[in-house]
Amino acid sequence: MRIVTASVIIAALSLGTPAFVQAQGAPSQSEAQPPQSSQSSTVIRSIQVVDVKDLQPAVRSKVDELVANTREEDIQSLRKSIDATPEAAAVLKAKGLSSSQVVAINIADGVLTMFAKTA
After folding, report:
1. Integer angstrom CA distances of residue 21 from 2, 59, 73, 113
2. Torsion of the alpha carbons at 54, 55, 61 and 65, rounded to the nearest 10
3. Pairing relationship of beta strands 46-51 and 111-116 according to DSSP bridges
4. Do residues 13 and 106 touch, judged by C-beta distance below 8 A?
5. 27-36, pLDDT tens digit by residue?
């Protein structure tokens, strides 16, 4: 994953991490092996997908604001990184989603959370 893209998105979401995790209730999680990256020492222990429409309104507006302020090139790079990570792509596929629906990610405490817009 391109560290610059991930850092911008992660930094913006990190302030609201507890709200994101609690806002969508008991998330479905799939265990995944940590992706290897020469640029990052972050270990991913599990991956979850959260539909933006399931978030509380205040949290949803933060995600929408973040997406509005993120360059399209950065989002496309993020989606390519997801497609290049078999574990992440498999979790999306299992939920009937694709990387084209992912608008942001968050990594906290070994959990990669992908925020997707489905409709």
Report:
1. 24, 10, 27, 9
2. -90
3. parallel
4. yes
5. 443 434 444 4
